[in-house]
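pipeline stage [seq->struct] | target=non-specific serine/threonine protein kinase | organism=Tribonema minus | residues=368
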Amino acid sequence: MQSFPNYSRDPEEELALHELLGEGAYGAVYRAERVSDGREVAVKIIPADDNADSLRKEVGIMVRSASPYLVQLHECYYKDREAWLVMDYCAGGSSCDVIDACQITFSEDEVREAMAWSLLGLQYLHSNRKLHRDVKAGNVLLTGDGRAKLADFGVSKEVTTLQNKAQTVIGTPYWMAPEVIQEVPYDGRADVWSLGITAIEMAEGNPPLHKVHPMRAIFMIPSKPPPKLKEPDKWTAPFHDFLARCLVKAPEERATCDAFRRAASAARADAGGGHSARSSGDAAENATLRTVAASSGPTTMEGAAAGEMRAAVAFGGGEGDCCRGCRGGGAAAAAAARRRVRRHCARLRGRPRQLFDAASPERILHST
């Protein structure tokens, strides 16, 4: 595949565009069908001349980011001063779509499932010396089977060495880490802060400070204590603990994606008495996980990785979950959470969606 738009083929002959999924300052996204094999895809059409540098960056990062936890770029065309990016189609839209169009929030188990898959996406980016820099519910897309994928690398930053850190103010104000706002060097832990804010957004419907003007929020985030859930009694202690690990103002004390996964591995080892043997309950859960993974799309290895990261997130079963049997955070709870997410996504069908400019406060200000 090409690393920059293909000039030799006409995208209108290669793709059949269907409905508009959304549009913003940087282009429009359509659901489409690839003529050659009938595959359903998403096509992002961008004015290429006005955004040539941004386009090269986005295409380059997406081409080099081959992970099942990230929205994949399959092809790229150029026609009439426009670039056509052919990407994974996520039938459920974004987590933000679900919140806005369906007027609901996500249960704790549903948030946990999204966090596990998102952490895997971030871990992949960080291990490949890349930052996302715009993690939010609008960029957590939901597949047809209720899984989450991180999207929108238009503001991603590739770090050329493991020691290098970005030093640019970019992203969406309400989700920004304090060190990003303060214009000091930052690394992947800035994405972890944004993921914690996203967890609150999914649970409550909006990020903290959403009633505050974005410019004021920029001053408040570095100076105020880290945000917490508004109604703490509704949520489990592990959920609060997860947020506390993400939302540490000092980045050197904040958890990394690797740290979350190492904690899960250590917990499993401790539970097994330091040996590889696990309890029959763990074995049954892992067998269930393998069955769910095999029947729901990703490979067993991908499902097992999600199961490990799910254990690292280690919360679930707060108020609003469907039943006590789904609580406790195992593979059965994960499968139940995905079923509920699929039902949420089904309600989006036929409803208009709006993609906002990453720096735009319209959705936040209009939701108050």
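stage status: PASS
auto-comment: The chain has 13 helices and nine strands. The mean pLDDT is 77.
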